[in-house]
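FORM 7B: Structural annotation worksheet

SECTION A. Query
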Amino acid sequence: MDAMLSEAYLRERRRLIDPDRAWPVMPPAGDPRRGKATLDGAPQSPREACGSCRDDGTEAAGTSYFGVIDRDGNIFSCTPSEGAKSGPIIPGTGLALSLRGSQSKVEPGHPAAVGPGKRPRLTPAPALVLKDGQPVMALGGYGGDHIPQGTLQIFLNAVEFRLDPQEAVEEPRVYSYNFPNSSYPSTYLPGVMRAEGRISAEVIEALRQRGHSVDRLPDWFEGLAYTA
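SECTION B. Predicted structure
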């Protein structure tokens, strides 16, 4: 963890970003143990990466989010998402089995393969924002792989662009699909980005010029069902 978060390693990773050219495929994995931006033999820029055909899929629904702050300043952030309506119910108990195993992989040797002692990477990502060690904001969202992306955009709207909470939530968002979906069957849409319709045509065209394949979402997209 220390190596992954070190400034020296992050400096190397930043070199992979080309402000004028989007990655046409999922960017390569890093090599923090050796302080290298990528594993040996991986492409070092978007222009070196090979292209790939789009394979549009369908997004599924689920998940909710809520945050609570009481009068004493206690703060709670939660993203309940266990898929009770679609998962198996244990007969006679009313209890649903967790479906989060579907965000692990079954391929032997895969870094996210099911195994003892592992903590899988999950899409529900409730967040607490701290300042000087004190909580100041609870935030989160829903929509599978939209969750961490949308949550980050809300955070940046509030902290970097100084919008009030309502404005931060209402600002139009963009979502990348340039990586395998976290849930089975891990649909992969190389180079694809989707943007809410309220984002200007000039911005969309600038993204396309940088190599993104941009689809238009509705003006107000809730991150639920969407078919390309």
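SECTION C. Observations
The longest helix spans residues 146-159. The first strand starts at residue 58 and ends at 59.

SECTION D. Sign-off
Analyst initials: ____
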